[in-house]
Amino acid sequence: MDSSINATACSHKKCCPISKTPCLGECIYANILDDISMGLVGLDIKERKVFFQNKQAVEIFKGTVQSKDYDAVSSVLNIEDCITANRFNLRQTLPFGNRFLGCTVYRIAESYLWIYVTDITEKMRLDSIAEAVNTMNNLGYIFSGIRHELGNPINSIKTTMTVCRNNIQAYSKDTILEYINRAMTDITRVEDLLKDLKNFSMYENPDRRNVLIPPYLENLLSMVAPDFGSSNIKIKTALRPEAELGYFDPRALQHVILNILTNASDALQGRENPEIAISTYRIGDRIIIKVRDNGCGIPDEQKKHLFKPFTTTKTQGTGLGLVIVKKMLSKMDGTITIVSTQNVETIVTINIPAGSQLV
Question: Is the pTM of this model over 0.70?
Answer without folding.
Answer: no
